[in-house]
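Supplementary notes for students who missed Thursday's class. We covered one full example, reproduced here. Read the sequence, then the structure, then the short commentary at the end.
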Amino acid sequence: MNKTNLTKDERAKVIQTAKEAKFCVVGYYFRASLEESLKRNATREGKARIPDKGVHGSHSRLQLPSFDEGFDELFYVQIDETTNSFVVEEWHEV
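Structure (token representation):
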């Protein structure tokens, strides 16, 4: 799990700037459970691996994106463990 744009407030700054510049705003939400994130992080080495406490902290701050934030398009992304490739699906709000 990356620390990039975890909350609506963090995304708002980026979205506003993109909209002001007349860009199309596309968001990708990488689906991963806390357990999956910890497992992937454990395979990293050196500076690429962050303390488990950091993964837990990021997970607790994560807010799902929503079209009402200003996204023009949103997608779910997950890793297909059998092919080790990304699977991208259209967003559907709950």
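Commentary. The longest strand covers residues 73-80. The radius of gyration is 15 Å. If anything here is unclear, bring it to office hours.
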